[in-house]
């Protein structure tokens, strides 16, 4: 029988609201996507100068991961190779691609070019946290919960992963949504079984 | 050099910094401002955009981008004269 896995924390950033473990932590609804992300960075006291250079997709995934892991993740439990990341979205890096395309009309910006792949957000999170485990970024029309459940179960069952940060991180223009959750093999207080229904609940809650 | 520092801050998105935070002779890379290889490319773009200067070679960048003062000296020596 497959070993059971648990969702031990969740975090979402969507429509000007930050939620963690189903609780609203912060609201700033009447601002642009960029201003919202900056306000979250400041509100949660994050100090990481490279944040300013990131594209909006990286900022979105980075902030959601910072809030997700804060207080809910003991990195001493894992080696660098045991922590993986599996993300998905619908618009890949199109938001950054369009910014880069604008810069090409003048002199192409190397700093914008380096963000013209969706999996760069995973790289930013790995650099910040020192994670070196398996990772993947899938592009899907809609969040394919059963696929993610299968893929992460497979990674954690057959490979070296003991923890995985999973979910959806998507932004295009002013539309943004990040719904992340931490999957571990250790059951904790208020954790939920890592099954489709519970992932669906987290995702739907982020819709407001 | 104040204007050059403002341009560097804007080009590299160093939003936590003010021009007065950057010393004229402070190293820009590694132990100084901690800039990386992408930032070096952005500084090359800055020279082209703001001063119409193209570096002759990548090796040249190591000495030109040592500090704000070395950048300013290079700009003064290489800026095309306006008609």
Would you identify the regions of chain B where 5 or more consecutive residues have pLDDT less than 50?
A: none
- Oligomeric state of shown chains: heterodimer
**Could you spell the SSE succession of chain A in H and E letters?**
EEEHHEHHHEHEEEH
Average pLDDT confidence of chain A is 94
What does this entry look like structurally?
The complex is a heterodimer of chains A (208) and B (83). In chain A, strand 2 and strand 3 (23-27) form a beta hairpin. The longest helix of chain A has 14 residues, at 56-69. With 208 residues, chain A is of the alpha+beta class. Chain A has helices at 33-43, 56-69, 94-104, 110-113, 120-129, 145-158, 196-205; strands at residues 6-14, 17-20, 23-27, 83-89, 135-139, 163-172, 175-184, 192-193. In chain A, strands 1, 2, 3, 4, 5, 6, 7 and 8 form an eight-stranded mixed beta sheet that branches. The radius of gyration of chain A is 16 Å and the shape is globular. In chain A, 36% of the residues lie in helices and 25% in strands. Chain B contains four helices and no strands. The two termini of chain B are 24 Å apart.
State the main characteristics:
A: 208 residues; alpha+beta; 8-stranded mixed beta sheet; 7 helices; 36% helix; B: 83 residues; 0% strand; globular
Topology:
The complex is a heterodimer of chains A (208) and B (83).
Chain A: E1 6-14, E2 17-20, E3 23-27, H1 33-43, H2 56-69, E4 83-89, H3 94-104, H4 110-113, H5 120-129, E5 135-139, H6 145-158, E6 163-172, E7 175-184, E8 192-193, H7 196-205
Parallel strand pairs in A: 4-5, 4-6
Antiparallel strand pairs in A: 1-2, 1-7, 1-8, 2-3, 6-7
Chain B: H1 2-11, H2 37-51, H3 58-64, H4 68-78
